Input
Amino acid sequence: MKFLVFLGSLRDSTPPRPARLGVRVTEAILECMTTCYAQHETELIDVKDFPPDAIFKPHFAYPENKAPSQLRALAEKIKHADGYIMVSPEYNHTMSPALANLLNHFGSSLYSYKPSAIVTYSAGQWGGMRAAVGMRTFLSELGCLPVSAMIHVPRAQETLNEDGSLKSEENKDAWFNYFGRTLNQLAWWAQATNEYREKVDPHSLIKSFKNSPLERNAP
Ligand SMILES: Cc1cc2nc3c(=O)[nH]c(=O)nc-3n(C[C@H](O)[C@H](O)[C@H](O)COP(=O)(O)O)c2cc1C
Output
């Protein structure tokens, strides 16, 4: 199976130090995926490679095949992935606006009928859990339903080195076990939905909106 790991860290300024704290969290998740889930393919999608547009224009607002090529390539990756890992900092108790902006580019039909895993972190003690609660609603609306377990990394700068290795290597098993609770749920749901999508095409049962989300309104 194929998983996309979205890194929602864009801040390139200090204070607060260190900037882009999310890089080390994502590296730790990628290391866990490579070590414990080597049978699956994992690809990093970094929001910093997709500078926000001055004016937001969703992918589906472009004429057919006229969206910027970088967005078209990402749309293909989202469409063909079996699940998503969303790594976000907490800014004022909400998810990364850069991550939301990038995910909002694409219609929910690309993400739908697949699972996602929520990973949050912060420099402080709550590990981004308030952002994580909001991410459940956001990701559910995108159609990539978040698994029940979540990963929160409080004080990420004290736990992880810049390359994602643990400052105390003796804690590695405990952290990977903790990550594994969420990642195992993700892998299980990804396998289940992958097999059932092969049998029944959900898009043939539930039509995507043609013009507007108003199409789902009550009569
Ligand atoms: C605008 C802003 C808002 C923040 N809000 C929160 C917050 O609500 N909760 C929290 O735990 N940390 C908050 N922080 C601290 C972040 O956890 C810390 O800066 C972290 O490094 C952000 O991740 P990043 O470096 O990958 O952007 C905030 C930081 C900034 C810059």
Residues 9, 11, 16, 19-22, 89-93, 122-124, 126 surround flavin mononucleotide (CB under 6 Å). The mean pLDDT is 94.
